[in-house]
Structures are given as C-alpha cells and as structure tokens.
C-alpha cells in the first residue's frame, strides 16, 4: 500500500459538505482566538521560568528568536489554510502535500501537543484559582485541590473548568468565541496595567549581565517559550468555521502572531528590568514582580488577568484538539463514528466530549509535572512539515488558486525549517525520549488500524449527520 498517497485539495473540501461545521467566525474572531491561546501560560508563567533558568534578561532575544521561527512558519500556514479551509491544521495540510503516513505522524504529534498541553494548563488554572481564593480568605481543602501523588484525592477545580469549557464548546463555536473575546480583552487590560505600573520602576542594572547563560541559554529559552506561540496553529484549525477563509485566515494567523510577539518582548523587558532574573523562577512571575514593588492591589488584578488568560488558552487548546480529531476521523485514521456533528449545535459533540473526559482525567488525577518542551517538539515538527508542504505544492500543483501566497517561498521555507530545526536541537534530551516513545505507539496504531481503514484505502468518503 502507498504510504505517501495524498488527498486532492478539492476532495478535502468536498468531504466536509455532508457534515459541515457552522461558519460563524470572522477575521477579528480569529485574531482574538490566536491571542486567546498565545497570551496566557507563556506570558504569565513561562517568561519568568525561562529567564531564571535559561536566558536571564536575554529572554527578550529568546522571544525574538521564537517569533522569527513562527513568522516564517506562519506565512506557510497562511498560504495552506487559505487554499485548504478544512479543519485539521497541519495534519490536513500534510495529507494534501506530503502523504498519508506523514499526515498521521503530524496528527499524532498534534494530539500529544493539545492533550498534554491542555491538561497541564488546567492544572495551572487550578493552582492560580486556589491561590486567588486563598488571598481572599477562602482556603479550599487539599484533598480536593491536589492529585493523589501530591497528597490529595482529586484536583476538582481543574476538572470543573475543563468540564465547563467542554460543555461550552459543544454548545457552539460562536458562543465559545464570544467568551474568548471577553476574556482576551480582560487579560490584555491586565497586561497593560502591569506595563503601566511596572515600567517606571525599570532599573537597567537588572539587565546586567544581559546573557548570563550565553547565547546557548537564549536558544534554549527560545525553545522553551515556543510553547507560548502555538496559538496561531489553533487559528488554522478554525479555517472550516470561518466565513471568509481566503482572507480572514491569513489575517488571523499573522495578526495574532505580530500582536503577541510585541507584547511578549515588552513584558519580558519590563519583568527582567524590575526584578533580578534569578528571582523569577515561580509560577506567577508577573504578579510576583508587582508584589516585589509593593503593589499588592496591582498584583491581584494581574492574577485575575492570569486566570482569564489561562482560561482562554485551555479553551482554545481543547478546541484545537477536537478539530484535529475531527479531521482524522473523517479520513478514517481513527474510527469514523467519532465524527458525528450535532444536528442543532453544528459541533463535533462526540469528539469534544471524549477530549474533555480525557483532559479531565489527566488534570484531575495525574501529577502534571510536564514542562512546556513536551508540547514543543510536536509543534516544531508540525511547523517544519507545513513549511515543506508549501514548497512541495508549489512544485506539484503550481497552477492551483492561492488566495494568499507566501512571499519569497524559496527563502521563507528554508528559513522556517532552519529556525524550527534549531529550536528542536536545543530541547532537552528527555523530550526526544518522550516523543520517540510516543511516535512508536503512533506507528503501531497507524500500521494496525489507520492505513487499512483510511478513506483512501477503503474508498469510503461519506459520513452522515447524527
């Protein structure tokens, strides 16, 4: 059997017609969707950890390096998402350009990226909420706020937030986007408050030495904080639910990336300017910085913004996971019975419920000591594949209509692969061990089930509403 068989773009688009998702999103919704996932854990948690352990004040350069890698990959994403406005993101793009087995590997990586990431984010949300309630005089029992390995029974706050967001995603994408929009404006306001309050207290002496760990530390920091940028990948998963995908998807991807990169660099500069970088190794560095300046009220506001920020990250990550599952189920890579679209809400309710249950179990019962780089390997790999896919389609299908064309593709694609590859090389060794194991499991699934049941192998393309 041909492991590298590809799906025709017209077939990919036609395959969504009989079980279509509702088209409810515009360009602003997509930009805010990207910001919702990008501005969250990265800005409120990872900035401090990466500065303290890896890059020092050079964390600013780490964000520039990660931003450049994302910028090149984003241009490739924008071209393919406008050409193939179908759920599934990098998985779908790989199926159209590089073949079935490559698409499955990418989809398998995205499953890990979103599921592990969402579980870790849910646990982080629980920690912030418990801390905020404690500061207000409300102490929740350890038994119901910690996992068994940490002396508790169940991390109930993590389960509750995942259950609520899963239910919202079942009700509809537009409703979810509306909540995301509200929370994004709140957290952007809190970031602005932090910059306004802290910027006047920046002490340039805190930026010396600027590279205490050398440029290698900057590169490692860039690989770590790359987790913060996966939100623009989630924008491409929404292509099928976009009103004008040809125009709005490129705006959503590039717009959210540019806005968030500027904010990240600004926050990193102010954060390391007001607090010695070695003091930032904690779970709430932004709020800590304001407490360091004796601005306790501002710290509480920022903590509220962090909760809003982490909520939107969790919402978008669960959303992205369900759309990848949807695309893989349509193609027969996983059982097609999961692909049913709710007749009233127009959402993939079965896949959404399954995703929510898995994330609830992981975040509620398991010790989530999973650092960001476990998600980053899959994301960086997907970015490389998408970039190469653009170049391949330019060669194999040069005449196909491209609503958005990646500029200077012969330069952008190699740079995207080079930057992403460089960041992969700077990930810790345990990350490679984890993903090596994960990919072995994936290959067992593919060769035992997926390659025999894919729609290309069976000739089955129809999945009914139910």
UniProtKB/TrEMBL annotation:
Record GO terms (molecular function): amino acid transmembrane transporter activity
InterPro entries: AA/rel_permease1 (IPR002293)
GO cellular component annotations of the record: membrane
Bilayer disposition of the protein: Multi-pass membrane protein
Record key words, sorted: Membrane, Transmembrane, Transmembrane helix, Transport
Main location: membrane
Subcellular location per the Swiss-Prot or TrEMBL entry: Membrane
Spans through the membrane: 30-52, 59-78, 90-111, 123-147, 153-170, 182-199, 211-232, 253-277, 297-320, 351-371, 377-394, 406-425, 431-449
Pfam family, one: AA_permease_2
Protein name, entry field: Amino acid/polyamine transporter i
Organism annotation: Lucifera butyrica
């Amino acid at each position: 059997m041909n492991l590298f068989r590809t799906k025709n773009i017209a077939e990919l688009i036609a395959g969504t017609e009989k079980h279509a998702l509702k088209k409810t999103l515009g360009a602003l919704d997509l930009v805010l969707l990207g910001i919702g996932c990008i501005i969250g854990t990265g800005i409120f948690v990872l900035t401090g950890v990466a500065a303290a352990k890896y890059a020092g004040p050079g964390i600013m350069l780490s964000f520039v390096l990660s931003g450049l890698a994302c910028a090149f990959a984003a241009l490739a994403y924008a071209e393919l998402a406008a050409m193939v406005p179908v759920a599934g993101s990098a998985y779908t793009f790989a199926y159209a350009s590089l073949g079935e087995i490559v698409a499955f590997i990418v989809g398998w990586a995205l499953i890990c990226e979103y599921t592990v990431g969402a579980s870790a984010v849910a646990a982080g949300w629980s920690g912030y909420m418990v801390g905020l309630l404690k500061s207000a005089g409300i102490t929740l029992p350890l038994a119901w706020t910690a996992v068994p390995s940490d002396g508790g029974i169940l991390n109930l706050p993590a389960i509750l937030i995942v259950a609520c967001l899963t239910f919202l995603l079942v009700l509809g994408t537009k409703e979810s986007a509306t909540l995301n929009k509200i929370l994004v404006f709140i957290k952007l306001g809190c970031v602005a408050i932090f910059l306004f309050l802290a910027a006047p207290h920046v002490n340039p002496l805190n930026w010396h030495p600027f590279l205490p760990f050398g440029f290698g530390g900057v590169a490692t920091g860039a690989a770590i904080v790359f987790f913060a940028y996966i939100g623009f990948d989630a924008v491409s998963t929404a292509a099928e639910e976009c009103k004008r995908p040809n125009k709005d998807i490129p705006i959503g991807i590039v717009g959210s990336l540019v806005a968030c990169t500027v904010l990240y660099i600004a926050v990193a500069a102010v954060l390391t300017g007001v607090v010695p970088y070695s003091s930032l190794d904690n779970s709430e560095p932004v709020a800590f910085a304001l407490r360091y300046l004796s601005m306790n009220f501002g710290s509480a506001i920022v903590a509220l913004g962090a909760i809003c920020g982490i909520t939107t990250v969790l919402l978008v990550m669960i959303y992205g996971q369900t759309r990848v599952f949807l695309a893989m189920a349509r193609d027969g890579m996983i059982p097609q019975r999961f692909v049913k679209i709710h007749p009233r809400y127009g959402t993939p309710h079965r896949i959404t419920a399954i995703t929510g249950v898995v994330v609830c179990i992981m975040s509620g019962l398991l010790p989530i000591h999973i650092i960001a780089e476990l998600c980053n390997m899959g994301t960086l790999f997907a970015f490389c594949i998408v970039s190469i896919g653009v170049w391949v389609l330019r060669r194999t299908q040069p005449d196909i209509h491209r609503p958005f064309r990646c500029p200077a593709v012969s330069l952008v694609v190699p740079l995207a692969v080079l930057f992403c590859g460089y960041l992969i090389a700077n990930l810790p060794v345990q990350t490679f061990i984890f993903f090596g194991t994960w990919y072995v499991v994936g290959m067992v699934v593919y060769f035992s089930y997926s390659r025999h049941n894919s729609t290309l192998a069976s000739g089955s393309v129809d999945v009914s509403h139910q």
